[in-house]
Amino acid sequence: MVEKETSYLNKAEEFIQMFKKGEEFTKDILRENEKLRFRVAQLEETVERSGDEARTKLYDERIRLLELELNSLKDKFIEVEEENKDFASKYLGVEEENNNLANLYVASYQLHSTLDFSEVLRIVVEIVINLIGAEQFAVMLIDDKTNDLIAVATEGIHASETLRIKIGEGIIGRVTKEGESYFAEDLSVMHDFNAFEPIVCIPLKIKEHVIGVISIYKLLTQKSGFTNVDYELFNLLAGHAATAIFSSRLYTQSERKLTTIQGFLDLLKDKPKR
């Protein structure tokens, strides 16, 4: 995020320099126009004191100067127009990056806005659908008892279709073991659903410890590929989603244990004395 902010500051500095350059263009044009107008005024004054032949020459000279002025203005206009086009293109790029940064911020904020495990999973699913544009995917976590990957949230597929995947087995198992994201070479190829063959697989990591993966099997029709912000979202999911899921799961488990203990204590408290 710090790198993104530095990039925006650099682009803002570029815009300031472009504005200064435009200001210098304007000043140059005004100075040249002032010189030409002063020369024309001198010629007009001379015409008043000259004969017909001299006036004709002076008029010719005036026309020549005006043509020079016109050509100079045209050249400056073309130059400024090109600068404006470049400025407009960069502005659109910055505006898009600002929107992307806003999306990243909102996604990050939402992930850490609750400690309810099911709510965190719902937020992760919404991010993958709405911001990344996935149609079929599964959020899979490592089962502490069996050490296998099992689906805890899915979209477009049934949880039972994902089966149990062992760490190191296939693409998903390898991503879980190595902690490196996987992207299919051709994202446009849509095959029949196969739990072991995602087109994208992102590890959910807390530092270097992988707690699960997000496996994407199909993108929405209008989504032909990934942009820079998509990869930023993948990085965000790899870290922030993992932390949010891990924290909320621990919290939910501790709440259940506390409820169980409290219920047991209440039973002991209410037990009739003999």
Low-confidence stretches: none
Structural class category = alpha+beta
Strand line-up across the major sheet:
3-2-1-6-5-4
User: How would you characterize the largest beta sheet?
Assistant: 6 strands, antiparallel
| Averaged pLDDT | 78
Tally of structural domains: 2
Q: How far is it from the N-terminal to the C-terminal residue, by CA? A: 66 Å
Q: Could you give the order of the helices and strands?
A: HHHEEEHEEEH
- CATH homologous superfamily assignment of the largest domain: GAF domain
Overall geometry comes to elongated
CATH class of the largest domain: Alpha Beta
Number of helices: 5
Helix content class: 55-70%
**Which CATH architecture of the largest domain would you pick?**
2-Layer Sandwich
Number of strands: 6
Strand content: 5-15%
The CATH topology label of the largest domain is Beta-Lactamase
| Rg over CA atoms | 34 Å
